[in-house]
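Re: weekly structure request thread

Next one in the queue (567 aa):
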Amino acid sequence: MALLAIERTHTNSWQTTTGARFRSFYEAQVKQELRRHGGDFDLSAIEVPVAVCWFPEKTGPEQEPHRAARKLFVDVNKEAKPPSESRIILLSDSELVNVLTRSMLGELRENQNHNAEYLPLYAVEYDNPEVNSSRPARWSVMTNIHLLKMAVDRCIFGPPKYLQNVKLKIVGRPSPPERDAFMREQLNMAELFGSEVEDGGFTYQRDNIGDREFPLGQSSVISHQFTQTWGRAMLTLLSRTAPYAAHANALTKFKDDWHVDDTFMSLAHDALFSGVGVYWTLRDSYDHYLTEQGKGATRQQSKSDVVRAWELLKKRESDFEVYRSNAYLESGKREVVQVSKNAYAVFNTHACQLGLIMTMGTLWELRKKQVGKVNLADLPSFAEAMVEGLNTFLAKDNGKVKDRRQVLVKKDIKNPVNQIANMDTPQAVYFRFFWLQMLAVPEAWEAIASWIPDRNGFDNILGQARELYLDLCTDQRFKALKTSRPSTEEAKLRSEAEAAASKALMRSLRDWFDLPEDSYELWYREERGKSKGLAAVVEQTEDDVEDAGGDNSHAPATKLADLLDDE
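Done, posted below.
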């Protein structure tokens, strides 16, 4: 591309080529270099080293030489400057988890060419040169390739304990044999292959197939099994659950309304909707521009189309937020847009999305336990039932005081159920509790009742997930109290922290999920083994503290936001 850019600039032929829209990336720099050389530049004098790789055993109609080329690319770059994690997922065939993750992107690509069953491919970030640990980096996308890989990892490879035991936190490194065995079960490998699989001159034992040892020539068979079952189920959850459907619909309308009548507008459009890597190139080019100009210097000189494109992208972010607020909350008023931003600050995290997908994995494990043999092909239908239940819960016209579409909002809201201080990916286990609690309300439960014959089993799981979340809230409050009152006995602080956390949870479940306080107290007594309702409940509420006046520095804390910076 660099040589093409030199030639097109030198001969003034950009406009006659298909690369005209990328002219701004190169032309100014090339002209500067040409001037340094007096304008006399002979491309024919340049020698470029090229390595040509030939795979003779991979030629022919039944072979796939691109697989060998991709493997070579990844192997070489691992030993030199490592490619980004996104690029490895897109290219690496050495791990089955990457192959399965790619199959979902392939499904989205096929889908956008035919119908709108799933979210559009441009709503997924799959070209990020960096790794963001908790959410996608681009404001236009809803999820990213890293989240899709985490979903495959947890629901297909497990290990199963994280789906079967909702009281467990995600810690440590799982055993590869345990992961591989669970994958074979989750994909019903016995249905796909006999006891031995011949591939590329090697014999694979079916019961030894795993993430790093699998017949590459049969990867399409394994991928198809995944795509038709788990893959479609995951994409259904991420495409049709109300907040995600609203984001995708808003983004599509935003794209359709984008009028491209100038080069820099075209570049900005490509950065969001087509050109792989264009967004990051614009960002880096703009950073370079700021460095060259000096942050405090005047910028009266003309800006390149690249710089103008990035500035346009920054301006259009606020426009998209209005589109999304209209799609989700049916209003584009400033105060409503802010509520929408607060909601998506949660919905678009890895923790929230992975928690949703793990909820499906957990309920599927419960179904296995209750009905015995399950049909893997039923998974997409089960995901549709979950979506119906969740959307019923989130519906605006639910006759309740609270607008349940804001159920996971943390900021500027009374009695929030979401009190998670940091929303890194491992917090997905707590978000699973939120999604389970949504499905537990009567109107939502109707959608999945036929899939889970024994409601008691579901309620047991819900109670365990709730207890895990209560433990988190208690720990957060305890740490905050310990910081603010270091001289107080820890046992007393722990008791106050649990009482305050429990009261806050009771209120949020009452307000958002219509769970009566006496039902919560009964659950609390049973789960915590208390002999009396809410043991040691903090008598002085937030309102009491505000009304009391004077020095309340030693008053029991009942609200985490009073003790922790929630940003």
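The two ends are 43 Å apart (CA to CA). Residues 455-484 form the longest helix (30 residues).
Next request, please.
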